[in-house]
Design brief:
There is one protein chain. The protein has helices at 2-20, 51-54, 76-80, 122-132, 144-150, 159-167, 180-185, 225-235, 247-255, 294-303, 316-320, 356-368, and strands spanning 22-24, 30-32, 48-49, 69-72, 89-90, 111-114, 138-141, 173-176, 192-193, 214-217, 241-244, 276-278, 281-283, 291-292, 309-312, 328-329, 348-351, 374-377, 379-384, 387-392. By secondary structure, the chain is an alpha/beta fold. It folds into 3 domains: 21-150, Oxidized Rhodanese, domain 1, CATH 3.40.250.10; 159-255, 3-Layer(aba) Sandwich (Oxidized Rhodanese, domain 1); 269-392, Rhodanese-like domain (Oxidized Rhodanese, domain 1, 3-Layer(aba) Sandwich), CATH 3.40.250. The longest helix is centred in the N-terminal third of the chain and has 19 residues, at 2-20. The termini are far apart.
């Protein structure tokens, strides 16, 4: 009888220990903790999420001011700078109390902390600190950066990392995935231009050694061209591919704008100094040749939008989230192939999120037919809740 009681106690203890290794998912459903949980010597945060949960919050295009804020709790110089989850910001746990200004003002906004995997305490520690500050929606991606990389996802580098490599004259190939027009206006020093829409035709510009470190970049978080090109490079067998998610806008803000070396000169704006007229329609030119001014575009949208055909050249998934009334969608990579299908009855205005892809669409159609009646909107455009905002460049 004593042996039976002892066995029952052992079973009960074992069962309790097993229950202690169950983590609560964001929805409250219990799921198994990490295999190495028994080795933990720290208190884990209560809400653990996985790769599938984090993926949408690290996919481009996106705005850092909306949705969950992904936070890297690892040291910046030794970990975050040379490889982090795209769109994540750096708040090292060791400096958390000094960097709370980087946290959102809205205490209800979702925060997702991560660090170096299941045995890394930093993300859990930061989660508890955020909780004490009053944040109410906190998650921890316990598998962290190692899991993200193991899933085949691209890692992003920081501007500081690139600057350090350039200063050291390291073997690093920087590839600007934007169209030729914005590249010519300024890029990161030493970069080569391989526009994503022309990637397949320009693979000869890629390094012959497929182990060469490469970093792709474009126009920031609103631009997914570098992500597309980086994935194409990986598909070709390149093994050391990363991206600089914040791209040239952040670089220019931190280190100053610089013209592209040996890049084609930008078309002079003076060539488009006079208004272009098509019947009763006056189109005021923008600063760049071929562009329409923001004021002119907005006036036409307000007074008589049927006078122009708006062709949104962003990706289909971006277009589905919102566009201008009456716009049609032809992704920039398809403009050349579908050029003959674009209606010719009225002026065409190409639009995108930053003016880069719309400018490339204009250049493409102008090359195919110099008399094609087209313009492009050279501006930053955002869509939300059925409304749009346009900020001139």
């Amino acid at each position: 009888m004593m042996k039976l009681k002892l066995l029952a106690v052992v079973v009960s203890v074992a069962f309790s220990a097993g229950c202690a290794q169950m983590a609560q998912s964001p929805g409250g459903e219990a799921k198994p903790a990490a295999p190495a949980a028994a080795a933990h010597k720290f208190t884990q945060w209560k809400n653990i999420v996985d790769y599938a949960y984090v993926k949408p919050h690290a996919s481009l295009p996106r705005e850092r001011s909306a949705g969950a804020l992904v936070i890297d709790s690892r040291p910046a110089a030794r970990r975050y700078d040379d490889g982090h989850i795209p769109a994540a910001i750096s708040i090292p746990d060791s400096s958390f109390d000094k960097m709370t200004a980087k946290l959102p003002a809205d205490k209800n906004r979702e925060l997702i902390f991560y660090c170096g995997g299941f045995e890394c305490e930093l993300s859990h520690s930061s989660a508890f600190k955020a909780d004490k500050l009053g944040y109410k929606n906190i998650k921890v991606y316990a598998a962290g950066e190692p899991d993200w990389a193991a899933k085949g996802e691209l890692l992003s580098v920081s501007a500081e990392y690139i600057k350090k490599q350039l200063d050291a004259k390291a073997n690093l190939v920087l590839i600007d995935s934007r169209p030729e027009r914005p590249f010519a206006q300024g890029t990161i020093p030493g970069s080569i231009n391989i526009s994503d829409s022309k990637f397949d035709k320009m693979t000869d510009k890629l390094p012959k050694d497929k182990a060469t470190p490469m970093v792709f970049f474009c126009g920031g978080l609103a631009c997914d061209l570098s992500e597309k090109s980086a994935k194409k490079a990986k598909a070709l067998g390149y093994t050391n591919v990363r991206k600089y998610t914040e791209g040239y806008p952040e670089w220019a803000a931190k280190f100053g704008a610089a013209p592209a070396a040996a890049a084609p000169a930008a078309a002079p704006a003076a060539a488009a100094a006079a208004p272009a007229k098509t019947g009763a329609l006056d189109i005021q030119p923008g600063k760049e040749k071929g562009s329409i001014s923001v004021a002119s575009f907005e006036r036409i949208l307000k007074e008589n939008p049927s006078q122009i055909l708006i062709v949104d050249v962003r990706a289909a998934k971006e277009f589905a989230l919102g566009s201008f009334p009456g716009a049609i969608n032809i992704p920039v990579a398809e403009v050349e192939d579908k050029f003959a299908t674009i209606p010719r009855g009225k002026p065409v205005v190409f639009t995108c999120a930053t003016g880069a892809r719309s400018g490339e669409a204009y250049d493409t159609t102008n090359f195919l037919d110099g008399k094609f009646n087209a313009y492009f909107l050279d501006a930053n455009v955002k869509f939300a809740d059925g409304k749009y905002t346009i900020t001139g460049r």
